[in-house]
Amino acid sequence: MNSMQDVLTFFQSIESSTRSLFLVSGLALFLSLEAIIPLFKMDYDKLRHAGINFTFTLITLIINLFGALLISAAVDYNFENNSGLLNLTADLSIWSYVVLGLVLLDLIGAWLIHWIEHRVKWMWKFHIIHHTDPSVDVTSGLRHHPGENIFRLLFTTIAVLLTGASLGLVMLYQTISAFFAALTHANIQVPRWMDKPLAWIFVTPHFHKIHHHYVQPYTDSNYGNIFSIWDHVFRTTTSMENMDDLVYGIDTHMSPEEHSNIKSLLMIPFQEYRHPVGSKFRN
């Protein structure tokens, strides 16, 4: 590939099998790194834990198929009508188109819906499932309630319509997003001298894991998916000097009978809301 246009062309016609290979390769890479440079030496049944998180992915496959049709329809609409922010000018270079497109897709399709899920009670009850994980590792990025997947697919579709992104750009974005989901949840140690400066632009493993601390205000911070710049712009960042102080999970659901049982996890959104420490949604 000798240009960014070649990259977009590749992703525009990428086969599902190739995308799956990318996903599996990424998981394998970070699983290996977790064994070599772990952030924490966690005492848990890794296979059972992975089984729970992979089950959520399997459950949401049908939703993702319908979501793919929705996103494809949005791409077709943009193409037929030359609509969207990226199509307002023909003077945009291919690199500007890709970088700006990725940043905007990440803002609307990931950061915004994530922030909303932490602000709207009934949506938060679906998102809680992701936060209940007591042992965050590379498979934790797959742990999403089917209901939450619907929210995220709808906002991704909105992002595609607003930006006017091409199919190649959308597929590139989703591939990078999947990579970052694995990277930022992986139980790996990153040198502070590397993590801290990178976290001004990108979501790093340490930056995101603070979001998984079990109490406020940490839970309601660091919403980024690929780019951390939106958290810095909207002042939603929180830091933790000593990563050893991290406790994963969510204070309202710390019982293994709830956070490590598929049936219980699926039913959480339909149960009575529990107030965490920090007075979330008390009014």
Topology:
Elements: H1 4-12, H2 16-36, H3 46-59, H4 61-81, H5 94-117, H6 121-131, H7 146-163, H8 167-185, H9 192-198, H10 205-209, H11 229-233, H12 256-259, H13 262-267
Question: How would you describe what is shown here?
Answer:
The protein has 283 residues and is mostly helical. It has one domain (17-270). The chain is built from 13 helices and no strands. α1 (4-12) packs across α8 (167-185) and α5 packs across α8 (167-185). The relative contact order is 0.15.
Total of helices? 13
Name the average pLDDT. 93
- Poorly predicted parts: none
Q: What's the helical proportion of residues?
A: 55-70%
- Per DSSP E runs of 2 or more residues, the count of β-strands stands at 0
Q: What structural class do the secondary elements suggest? A: mainly alpha
Binned strand content: under 5%
Would you list the SSEs in sequence order as H and E? HHHHHHHHHHHHH
In the residues, how many domains can be counted?
Answer: 1
Largest sheet: none
End-to-end separation: 55 Å
Structural Rg: 19 Å
Q: Give the overall silhouette.
A: globular
